[in-house]
Amino acid sequence: MPKERRKEDEYPESGEIVIGTVENIFKQGAFVTLDEYNNKRGMLHISEISLKWVRNIRSYVREGQKTVVQILRVNPERGHIDLSLRKVSEGQRREKLQEVKQKQRAGKLLEIFAKSEKVPESEVMNSIGEKLMNRYDSIYEGLEAIATDNERIDEFDINESWRDDLLKLINENIKVPYVEVTGYVKLKSYEPDGIDKIREALRMIESYETESTINVLYDSPPIYRINIRSSDYKTAEKDLKTSAEKGVEFFRKNNGEAEFYREMPEESS
pTM above the 0.85 mark? Predict the structure, then answer.
């Protein structure tokens, strides 16, 4: 996600994904005002609306509709901004709408907080919002990080009299998303201290240093299940593989048989 910044007096960059409001439609396209850029106007030519032949522009966009577009070209001197709808993938569209939704939610929460503390909203934005944006890609991401680990609030030197009330508001309104992945390790040893080495290998897996939560379950020895709970799949998969490799490497060095499986192996003996 691109870093949130104040855009009112700026022009967008070529390639940027933005959200706008369709202002009016004409024979060769539509004019779209860019919500994040102080309603600067861009032109969406009919050739950039769809990969298919466009018979009726209103089949794709209508006046007053919010739409996600890509910036093709920008000429600040002439005030020209060319837009494309057809170059925006479905994934980009969903991500942008989610970003906008989160930005609005973060703004609303800070507004509620300002009213509850009986202080100007601008003061809350300067004292909290700006500090979060300096550290994270957006205010919402910063609030989400604090919801994940409440102690992070102390990293921002926030007014002590606000601390507990802000934490309460965050914890009541921000639900931290997470994903879970599962993998397996097969550990067998014929050494006299084999049981102890198995326990040590599993302990190494579970204690791997990461922000993800790792649990090892003794389901059906010699196969042991590893559950990873993390903020996103990329991190979860990485932590699963790396933590399992630590345990497997240790166990092999101690004359044991060890394998990591992404899926449950068919044979469990």
Answer: no
